[in-house]
Amino acid sequence: MKITLKLFCLISICSLLAGGSTGCKTISADSRLEPQAILKFSDLPIPTGLKPLPQVSYAFENAGSRVAVLKYQGRANIDQLINFFKEQLPMYNWKLINIIEYGQRLLNFEKEDETCIITIQVAGFWNEEALVIISLGPKSKGLNKKTKEPVK
User: What is the full DSSP assignment across 20-36?
Assistant: First the structure.
């Protein structure tokens, strides 16, 4: 009986210390996310608070095209991130095509000759962190034309 009580007390104290050391941060629904000052591409705003993951990201740009898979992670509310991209990208001439929400969220945008897919998913044990993946590339040319021959 004494061992069980001591074990209970020890577990309780450890739980309190672990919870107290991490702290609690609530994000109100009214607070807005702001774009970061330094961007990889000038027309792809990233919310403050998200840190780039350069070791798992890739970007290439030349005179004619851009290709990138940019990954960011940080504490952020998923709904606020969706609203951020829905509000900010049209300011840079991106047109929202659709949003797919099932587990992770996919936001599809396009410009004249480029597409951008933004994937937002939970990336933490306690659902406090978000992983944002921005995939950018040129649109396929000629796929909209109807042809009689199959694509090989």
Answer: HHH------TT----B-
